[in-house]
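I hope you will forgive my troubling you with a question about protein structure. Here, with my thanks, is the record as I have it:
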Amino acid sequence: MAHFSLKAKLLILVDALVIIAVLSMGLIPRYVAKNTLTDSVHTNLSNLSESVSKQIEDLNDAEFTLLHALAEIPLLKDENASLEEKWEMLHGMTSIDTEKINATGASLTEIAGKMRTSIDHIGSQIDQFKV
């Protein structure tokens, strides 16, 4: 820098300071926003997964309760009863269980819709911060 005039040295120094200031004003908020978004996405996905997990657990519990109840039916426990008798009894019960199956399907469809909406929302938030 010995070959430059004082005016040129000051101009280079001021330009360097302006560049550093502009870069810091752009990079620091981007870094903070990225971390905030990452934390928000993590929290939202954790909450959603816990909710879905709870709903699936409830559905599984209901099915296991049904299986335990079926296991206690004397006709099903009876080794002397024919498979046809057991099938006829269970077949008669299926008309009752179709409502439960429809409700389970509707619940799973609702869960899938919520997950799709949440993932789309997260994707749009991430797209805002792409460089």
About this structure: The chain has three helices and no strands. The CA atoms of residues 13 and 65 lie 77 Å apart. The first helix runs from residue 6 to 71.
